[in-house]
Each structure stands twice: as C-alpha cells, then as structure tokens.
C-alpha cells in the first residue's frame, strides 16, 4: 500500500506560515524534515515552492499549480489532483510539504502525519486544518527545546483504520 505522509510544523493555534515564510526557525525541525523526505517525492503548492526558492536536492519535486504554462527546471508540474495522483501512483512513499490549500486537499488521502508542534501561539495567514482525533492515532512524541528556548514536539500519527 502506498504511504502518503504529510509533514508540517504548526503552532498551538495551527499557524503554519505568515507572508510565505515560517514563523520560527528551528534547526532540529529542518534536520528532521530533510531526514524524513530525502530520497522520496515531495509534493507542494506553487506558493510553498516560491518560498523555498529552488528544488530541494535528493528528492523528486512536484509542484501543483493552476498555471498550466509553468516550467521550472528540476520540478515536475501538475495542474490537478487527478494528474498528481496519476504521477505518484507507482511511488512507494510520498511526502506532502504544504501549503495550506495542499494540506487541506491531502488530509483525506494521507496515511501518516509527521507534525512538529510548536508550543506557542503566533500570528499567521496560513493554517493547518484541525485534526480529528477519531481519524488519527498518535504513535510517537518527542519533546524538545530549541537553542532559542522555543519548546516543541515531534509528533507522529497514523490514520485510524
């Protein structure tokens, strides 16, 4: 069975971004992101790609955009969820990395969630949908503190059968 994982960092109030950037800088989170996604396809929306600014090395980069004329070197472009699902159908493990609209679409398709819960309420203009505890089972939690004294947890979920 194909594994579709969402990987996201969010605050207590479900904020994931502000002005196309992350509202925090947590090196441990970036290291975990790289470790989990390396060697696997990553799916993102155009705004997320623009915020990163380049294809991420060591991964197949797939961008969903409504702009059918988009051509980005090192990136596969798809214009619909159906064309994306056709493109990834033979992939063993795919990571969905954002942003807000892409997360909303894929939450129903995801089998796993890798969440960095940032213990803070922050202002933002992009949010992660509220998780249904009846649909997701927590299978791992690691509490950490950044060098800037920001408390956060790595929390892993699997979809309930």
Topology record:
Elements: E1 3-11, E2 15-17, H1 27-37, E3 42-45, H2 46-52, E4 61-64, E5 75-78, H3 81-88, E6 93-98, H4 100-106, E7 112-118, E8 126-127, E9 136-145, E10 151-159
Protein architecture, described:
This protein is α/β, with parallel strands linked by helices and 161 residues long. It has one domain (3-159): Dihydrofolate Reductase, subunit A (3-Layer(aba) Sandwich), CATH 3.40.430. It is built from four helices and ten strands. It has helices spanning 27-37, 46-52, 81-88, 100-106; strands at residues 3-11, 15-17, 42-45, 61-64, 75-78, 93-98, 112-118, 126-127, 136-145, 151-159. The longest helix is centred in the N-terminal third of the chain and has 11 residues, at 27-37. It is globular and about 45 Å long. The protein starts with a strand and ends with a strand. InterPro entries: DHFR (IPR012259), DHFR-like_dom_sf (IPR024072), DHFR_CS (IPR017925), DHFR_dom (IPR001796).
């Amino acid at each position: 069975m194909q594994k579709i994982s969402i990987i996201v960092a969010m605050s207590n109030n479900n904020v994931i971004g502000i002005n196309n950037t992350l509202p925090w800088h947590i090196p441990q989170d970036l290291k975990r992101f790289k470790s989990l996604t390396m060697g696997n396809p990553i799916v993102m929306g155009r705004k997320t790609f623009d915020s990163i600014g380049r294809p991420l090395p060591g991964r197949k980069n797939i961008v969903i955009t409504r702009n059918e004329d988009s051509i980005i070197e090192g990136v596969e472009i798809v214009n619909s969820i159906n064309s994306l699902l056709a493109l990834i159908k033979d992939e063993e493990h795919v990571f969905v990395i954002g942003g807000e609209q892409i997360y909303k679409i894929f939450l129903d398709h995801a089998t796993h969630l890798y969440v960095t819960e940032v213990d803070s309420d922050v202002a933002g203009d992009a949010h992660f949908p509220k998780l249904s505890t009846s649909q997701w089972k927590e299978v791992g939690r690691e509490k950490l503190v950044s060098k800037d004294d920001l408390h956060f947890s790595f929390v892993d979920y699997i979809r309930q059968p």
